[in-house]
Amino acid sequence: MSVISARFSSKHRSVLPDTSLEVQVRAAEPADSSAIQSLVTHLTEELFGPFNILNIIEKSLFSVTLIDSSDEVIGFAAFSDCPPPSARMTSSNWPTQMAQELSLENFTSLNTMFLHLFVAKTDFAVGCIQEIVKAVFASVPDCAQIVLSVPNSSHPDPAISDIFRPVKKTTKASSTANCTFFVSHRHDISPVLHVRPAQMEDNDDLTPLFAQQNNQLQQTYGDYFVAELIDSQDEKHHALCAEKGGRAVGFISLSSDVNVDLLNQAFELGPFHGLRKPHKDDVLEPSKTGATPPAQKKISHGGEGVATDELPMDLEATVCMVGSDIEAINGFLKAMQASNESSVKESQNDDGSMKMSVTLEHFNRTVKLHFVSMLDQNVLHGGAKEKDALTSSDCVILLYKPTQMETIESTVQIWNAFLNKGTSNNMDPSVSSEADFDPTNNTASTVDHVDSHMVPPPYNANGGRGEQMKLFVADVSDTETADGISTPGTIEDLAAEFSVGVMEMSLLSCAQDATLLRDTLSHLTEAICRTHYGLSTPSLPDDDEGHHSGDKSHSTNKSKTSTRPPVSLSTIAAPVPFVPEYKGESNCFCIQLFCMREELETRSGDFLASAFQCYPDRDYCVLTVPHLVPEFMLLQQFVRVTPRVQSNLGQELYIFNRYGLLSDFEVRPCLSADLAQIERLTAGLEHRDRMLADVRQYNEARRDKDGTPLHAFSACVGGPGLPNSPKQVVGICVVRQEEQIEYLKSCFNIEDFVYYSHHQRSEHGHLHHMVMNPIFHHLTRTFLKEVMRLDGKSCLYYPVFSRQYNEETGEREYSEEEARHTLVTCLGEMVPVRPRRQISYPLHMLHGNVPSERVLRETHPFALYSLNRKLVLEPKIAINARIVVVGASDTSLAFLESLVFSAHLRFNNVTLVSPHGLPGELPVSKEAQEMLSTSLSFTRERLSRMCLRSWVTVVTGNMVHIDRKSKRIHIQSTLHNKGALEGLSYDHLVLATGNQYQIPFPLGMYGNKDEDEIRKDFSAPPNVFTINDDFEADHLLYYVRTHLTAPSTDHVVVLGGGTVDMYGCVRMLLNNGVKGDKIILARRELEEGEPTCFNNPQVEELIDSMLTKNGVRVLDKCELYSWRQSDSTPDHPVCEVSLKVDGEWESYSCQCVISFQDKRVDFHAFKAVNDSCLVFDSRLVIDSDFHTNDVCVRAAGPLTKFSRRYHADQWSHANFNSHQVGSELAHSMLRLFDPTIEQPNDTEDDFDLEGEDDNMRQQLNNMIPIYSKPTVVYCVLPGEFEYLCVRKPDLLKRAEEARKEPNYGKEYVTGSLDTSEEPTKGDKSGYFMIHVNNYSTVQTVTCVNKRGEGQNGNKRSSLRSGNIMCLYGKNEKLLNRMVSRFEEGLIKDFYTYFEEPWAMALFHDRFEDLLLEIREILTNPPPVQSGDEGEDGEMNSFTQKVRAIIEENMEMKSGEWNKLMKEFQSGGYKKSVETRLLAYLSYNYYHLPMYAKPGML
User: Fold this and answer.
1) What is residue 123's predicted lDDT score, i.e. its pLDDT?
2) pTM for the whole thing?
3) What pLDDT score was predicted for residue 1080?
4) H helix or E strand, kind and range, residue 56
5) Secondary structure of the chain: what % helix, strand, coil (to 5)?
6) What is the pLDDT of residue 385?
7) Is CB count within 10 Å lower at the N or C end of the chain?
8) pLDDT at 1006
9) Per-residue b/e over 124-153, b at no fewer than 16 CB within 10 Å?
């Protein structure tokens, strides 16, 4: 078990009463079970009945262990919220039974705990129980009493009876007749403090309390600052004092003078009504007309618009389709009706016109469109006589309006008004020509009032009718047409008067092509949303330079491949929420100053009732604390308010509502009468209909239609006014039986938190919905605890699904399972579960011995959150420090992963700054994803199972400046208001931008000028690309499909450096119709001793042959000298490039330049770092612990280099595995926040330095860290060859030079590189090379294999990359004596060899743990005494004996080897290793059923 309790992480120890023994209370762990068992006596079993220690630790609500200074267990106790089985009470109904049968008052499941087991060393039993009970009351503030139930035939130990008092039974006692109950009350151990108004005399007691924590107030305001606060009390300011034993032990200063407006600007206070009282002029909802209050910042896709969240969930519009062929229009409507179940045919008139309504889902909203067909013979292409031109029946004009048009007559009126106004305006006929319009484009052309240039110019019709249409294609809210010509004000006024938009559409083949029909509807809906509601949607993106990605004006021919517009950042853009306006009076007071004696800190909440009495007209108490102040006990009863994204206030805001003082909080099964209150509670929540449907289903049948048990619970408090007023529902929770336990267990490390063998199948619950009123959010854990008690669950699971998109359309998709959930408000109280690496099973080789369908089933990947009984009272440590991570590299993702999966920590302010958001979120096409090489550390599936979005705020933009003095970075947005700078404050800044490909500067044009000077006047031409991530790859792919596939004499120039990405790009070009003879691959000259990107002659030969086969021209020793643009203006494309090839000059006409020159530090990052005076020496300089010269700024990854004082200039993080570097960076930072991590001792070291001088110690401190995980490169090469290289992190040398080294070892190769078009089949095996070093360890694995055919003609992977990566670092004998088998000729193909059943255990994610456990067995003394003792009289371990032989002879002789083998068998090592191996196979048998267990044969 890897969960570490954070509750008792303090090193504070206490002394047991009447003894001198120092003890510490900590959470019990399963590893303590053997020590606890040794404390059990026969009296223990008589008192508590039969029990299993491990089961009690696993199932108890609260279990603690008492240890002494030597970490020896001297006591243990376990507590639960239900009576033990011997009490004969049900866990769900015991409060009612106890109230009837025992003389107990105010005993509920919320304030009562039961002692299920107590054991201790006899001599210390009295002190142990006292310390443990104190710890329980201190750690669980809601617990008011502890109950002990013992059989009548037994009597508790005198140690227990000293603090537990017997309870009298009533005459109605029946179920409790066989038991005797004892109780220990909180007020006897830790009584409630007496709170009173502070007095001047309290100054002497309070001043030392403040001085113990911080003397800053005393230094600033003098020794009597407390007395002055007390003396200044009035109706707005109050001071309270907590008293114990006649002495002041706590102090709180209150004030009603609160800047509520400032708090509303900085925090999301909508759920708390802005901390003001209701007022008739409050603006709580956006205007139905789309207008926003003056305080609301309007946003749109580049201009004025309406914030997304202001819109209603249901949008409605009327679309009038005007054309000359009514039958063609009606055919379109009928086809649409047939393809959509929600369409309704309303009527058909005598003139043939038709009306119909259809409901669509668009941009997460329901859009209802009312279609009306209308005949107008004037809509003609009078001059369109060419073969491919549209006929009159193909063209319609659409008028759309965001409300219903009342009648056909009103539609005709609008249409005629437009025609009349259009005729009265004299437009220049030369504005548009027929050549500008591509008539083969059969989809609708949408119009956006910002990006209007993406729409092809409208058709040209003789007689002026076509010119009139130019007035209609433009958006009604804009003053430009699609051609950029200003529209007369009369048309703009007319459009505004009727509130309509106009667009042109062709209906050709829509009725026959369902895909085209769907695209047409999507474009139409998109136009309506963008025009009238200001919604930016994924299918109309912008690129990084601000140009519209959908620009079709330069397109020459359509590719046969789908030309879906590239992905847009608006897909992941978080809409700016509506900001209400509050006019009422302030409804809050604040805590100005607070202090409490440390040992009484758990009683901090005793102040709250008296505080609200001081302000009877205020409902909220607020408290602000600096970000770096740890969350103290008082704040655990408050609700943390989410800050606004743009907020830079250096404080955290916490709120407590006076209704939080209510003590009648109750959780019960949901009733039908609760539905109305639940609807009010969930009003405004997304997908709340799913929750309400489940609640109704529960009240009707108590189970789903498929028979799955369903349970719904309501959290209630007493209503306002009289005590007998009806209960108010403040929370709702819906739980189902978890049916996919095997799948969850196999895909996630749930066993880090629970032992499955101690939980019955029925005790696993699946959380579907959970909503809590914000003012009662501090009771969320209590709510969940009660749900588990009432439902008989010990574990709850909740999946978080990442966004899934249709690969062809880019539209959002919901899986069936995702559609059954809503976002819960308890996510912060649950623990994220790490995903597990899965074995890639060769099913054809396992002959049916494969895991069950429950394990192998395919589903949409999701992240998993869990909570169990032993964690439900485990408060997380809240970290409010603002951690800003710049860059979305593998290093950054590994860093964020380590923070997020720290189960006992909750990071509230982690922000990632990246130009294109989190990787894996954008709906990028599969081909774009495969364009660049990858390390396989963070695949899309793994990112989906991490769901970093749950905890990380993402800011899309580039960091351009660091203000170290103000601890603030400036960000240039890449989403909205491009070029505008935004500020982001930090407490800890992490720079991990990595290196990027940069736009090349031709040597002949710029010479050796400084890059800063060049960039002042430089603007990248629109057809010069650098590809650094999937986003940019998707945009390049779209450009290639729309611009480069037509026959042309121009070339595509790919500039290559020392990476494999250029070959992936060439593959993409070839696959998308670019002829090989038009591709020029210009490779730079390698430096002396520099290896190629493959560093493998066989692979390089394959690549060269594939390039030659496809006609690609390869230029070696090449350098970009200059280029010429089509015009002198910088935004015109490059039309010619000049290359210097091995000293000769060559020029080529050019359509596109794609640069993969060597990666280096991004210019924005360099400028920000350099201008902020962080040490930059070709890269950002750091020490061995990731620190820059600023203690608040850390950096890692290829961006960095080690300081020169380490004398290791050749080594940097770029030589190592970025995932491991990021994890180590997180571990370094976690030492600042995690109290469970022991701080490094500067006086100690991992090395034995006894007797060494200070110089040696200093040398060891100046060593750079070395990381062990391999570096991985995977990509898809031309010819559909998959390439995978797994190698040791090292300084790369050319292969031919490395092979000459004496310790190089040997390479073992199977297969060959076949360049035929046929995929790998039968005996055709791909290239597989394993390099085994001189120590018989696998050091390098290189695989190249041709892809096979998958379903639907798609290419499927032929490499089991995850399995192959596991071979690295293994001794070859672990690989079934691979070397000897290879030399004997038994291995013909490594691919087949490692797909055999014996190898599956090697690829299991827990195999490394098995090796560590076996190593531990060998490093310990032998299990069986052999008489071979060391000098100190202790038995030598097997490892020590091997080391002694090696140190003496430097090699092992055969006789010594035989002696060791005899010792291995006779000493018990062999049996221990076999036992451990069998236990490993048995425990993981659900993954490894291909192995036979004992007794099967």
Assistant:
1) 83
2) 0.82
3) 92
4) helix 53-59
5) 35, 25, 45
6) 35
7) C
8) 74
9) bbbbbbbbbbbbbbbbbbbbbbbbbbbeee
